[in-house]
Design a protein that fits this description.
There is one protein chain. The protein is 39% helix and 28% strand. Helix 4 packs across helix 5. It is of the alpha+beta class and 147 residues long. GO terms for molecular function: blue light photoreceptor activity; FAD binding. This is BLUF domain-containing protein.
Length: 147
Amino acid sequence: MNDHTSGADLLSVTYASSATELMSVGQLVELIEQIRPKNERLGVTGLLLYSGGTVMQTLEGDSRVVDDLVAVIETDPRHNGVRVVDRRLVDERAFSTWSMAFRNITSREVADLQDFSAFARESIGDDLGAHAVAAFGLLETFRLNAV
């Protein structure tokens, strides 16, 4: 994907939330297929992780566009308890080739990731700041393996 956004305006936001209803793999794939064309038009890239009702997503793009998307997600009835884990201006995209990569994480994979387990246990609290490192470690693991 061409990056028409200058480094000064390139924003990366990672949030975690709980889905209000569990989604099947088919429903998740359908949702991602709806998201991708819109993200391409908006110049947004990123990664969406889903595991048993827990959603974690990184969005990258023009700061105004990404902030607007996060505002929409925060009011989306499919999400509960949207918490921004990290918001930062970046020089380059981590997910530059993906309009939205997606990974449905199995419970076994979650169990094998101690950092994510600690993050998931603590994420029901209000302060995710201390767990941002674990969230980014998880994103990096799956960034290398996402479809």
